[in-house]
Amino acid sequence: MNLPLIAFYAFAAILLFAALRVITARNPVHAALWLVLAFFTAAATWLLLYAEFLAITLVLVYVGAVMVLFLFVVMMLDINFDKLREGFWGHVPLAAIVGALMAFEMVLVVGSREFGGDSVASPGAPPPGHSNTKELGRLIYTDYVFPFELAAVVLLVAIVAAIALTLRQRKESRYQDPTEQLAATRAGRLKIVKMAAEREPPATPPEAGA
Amino acid sequence: MNTATFSLATLAPAIPEIVLLALACTLLLVDLFLAERDRHVTYWLGIVALLGVAVLAALTIGRPTAVTFQGMFVSDMMSQVLKVALLASVAITLLYSREYLEARGLLAGEFVSLSLFASLGMLVMVSANHFLTLYLGLELLALSLYALVALQRDSVVSTEAAMKYFVLGALASGMLLYGLSMLYGATGSLELNRVALALSHSQANPTLAAFGLVFVVAGLAFKLGAVPFHMWVPDVYQGAYTPATLLIGAAPKIAAFAFVMRLLAHGLGGLAADWSVMLAILAAASLAVGNLLAIAQTNLKRMLAYSTISHMGFLLLGILSGSDNGYSSAMFYVITYALMTLASFGMILLLSRAGFEAENLEDFRGLNKRSKWFAFVMLVVMFSLAGIPPAVGFLAKLAVLQAALEAGWTWLVVFAVLMSVIGAFYYLRVVKLMYMDEPVGGEPPVAGRADMRVVLSANALAVLLLGIVPAPLMDLCARAITASL
């Protein structure tokens, strides 16, 4: 047992435990916090695989941005999670059977000759001075520049679509239009009415009680 | 791997795509600064952009095959011809849609720009030489189409159609990706040439490759709308507003043909024995379900959706032959099919007015009394879809059937002929309604702007003319296939 292997088992145990707690925690805030731990531990296992860029991105993007946002949302929404969870235990037997079957199948496939650990040779440790980040950057901006640009266009379409589908000019929404404000003239706002300084009393006083 | 270098020479094969992307982005910006009443400027710019790029693509026809972007992009004759066809088809779609969109207040800049992005996705699919680019092109097309269908937000039916389209499309993409990942595991490459090489030298794990193939074919069948993965087609065709239906129904079929060709005929050519049987089952089921269920429809859009399913069966018939002859007749089929679809939905758009959708069979009753010419246009299109000479649909079907017969699929050919005879019924019913019945609700003359009437007439005449003089297009398809595979 060398140090990386011990570290791997430690991380794997923490990851599994955290992932389990995500779905079993009663308090949604706790679940989100457990998810943060799961992400963080997954990043650590990636570090063991020399994938430091992916590990850092996972921490920065998922832990740093996505999960914080998620926590905010969970704290703001007033959802009774206990109510949502009603009947959860009723489904457990079936879910357990399905899960166990799936795990069994995956073990069959992963353990078979198709995906066995020995069917693909381990790339081994990279040479000293090797930068994962630099290599990824080089590949993305040279060999994979075409798919990279396409992915950018897909995101652009997603933005256009999201705006087109959600932006509505509501009649009741009030907003200021600076152009209109600047174009306002005295004539449009102020009406000067000429009237006599004194008003003549009505010619014939109305009859009382009419 | 050697470091990539970029020069104008490496970008040259992709000029249509690059120009289209630049124009689409420019259009997005231009549209921002236009007032609501100037929307037609965006619309005409969109058509000009599409036609301009189509000309650019047409200029490349006949150039030798060029591979660029580190083997991710290929410009061969098949892609060059198909690009022109699909760009022209999107441009015609936009032209037909104008009045309909205007009358319903849907002529927003997004409709045009999303159509351009969808076209870009199709161009990428047609020219893809790599699993990644194939998939990204497909997603670009699909995302734009989902949004286009959903643009009519106030209509419940439209929203439901968009929802179904999105969910099932995402499922199909998932299946396709899963299959592709299996194929990557089996062959060790994502590049089509290398995948083909690994399969032909039997370096790939056959079980794993066949396993991946099943998912890939299922994903493709979803996208094509072949039975048993056709559930979304009728609902989406009927539910979407007609311009969006036309956009889904015409050009993407051309792109899907190229997609299937690249993936199955080129990349997985080594597994032809496996996939041709799968395609045969899909084709037989599509022919049966499409033709039989179309008879029961009273809504023309839904009927045409089932007709699409049966036509996809014919298309698969050509592809599963696995010969150059079969591929080129399938290519001829898909181009002419796009032409017919444009004309048939063009007629629905022409007859629709503000607040009235001419989407039921009843709405075509007595069309001959209202406009002799447009009844004739519809007659040509229906004859062509049914496969009655001299319209082009007959020759397209004949070519595909011959190719399948040569490949030894006798039972399938007999079945296909039988089914298209049954299918002729519902096309001819439309003709009967137009010519032998009295119009309901008075006889309003057929309105429509001059540009649309001219293009629609030309479209129908092209359907007729190609049926009489099919040789140039057939030769072009044959040359394209032999030059590309």
Which structural class do the helices and strands of chain A define?
A: mainly alpha
Classify the secondary structure makeup of chain B into a structural class.
mainly alpha
Q: Provide mean pLDDT of chain A, rounded.
A: 83
**Strand fraction of chain B:** under 5%
Number of strands of chain A: 0
Average pLDDT confidence of chain B is: 91
Number of strands of chain B: 2
Number of DSSP helices of chain B? 21
| Largest two-chain interface | A-B, 21 and 37 residues
Which spans of chain A of ≥5 residues are poorly predicted at pLDDT below 50? none
Would you mind describing this structure in some detail?
The complex is a heterodimer of chains A (210) and B (485). By secondary structure, chain A is mainly α. Chain A is built from nine helices and no strands. Chain A is elongated, with a radius of gyration of 33 Å. The longest helix of chain A is centred in the first third of the chain and has 25 residues. By secondary structure, chain B is mainly α. Chain B is built from 21 helices and two strands. In chain B, a hairpin with a 4-residue loop joins strand 1 and strand 2. Chain B is globular and about 70 Å long. Chain B starts with 7 loop residues before the first helix and ends with a helix. At the A-B interface, helix 7 of A face helix 2, helix 5 and helix 6 of B.
Topology:
The complex is a heterodimer of chains A (210) and B (485).
Chain A lengths: L2 H22 L3 H21 L3 H25 L4 H4 L3 H24 L20 H10 L3 H22 L11 H5 L3 H4 L21
Helix pairs in contact in A: 1-2, 2-3
Chain B lengths: L7 H4 L3 H18 L6 H22 L5 E3 L4 E3 L1 H27 L5 H19 L3 H20 L5 H32 L4 H9 L5 H19 L7 H8 L2 H8 L1 H17 L4 H24 L4 H21 L3 H28 L15 H4 L1 H15 L5 H15 L3 H27 L13 H19 L2 H14 L1
Antiparallel strand pairs in B: 1-2
Helix pairs in contact in B: 2-3, 2-5, 3-4, 3-5, 4-5, 4-11, 4-12, 4-15, 4-21, 5-6, 5-12, 6-7, 7-9, 7-10, 8-12, 9-13, 10-11, 10-14, 11-15, 12-15, 13-14, 13-19, 14-15, 14-18, 14-19, 15-17, 15-18, 15-20, 15-21, 17-19, 17-20, 18-19, 18-20
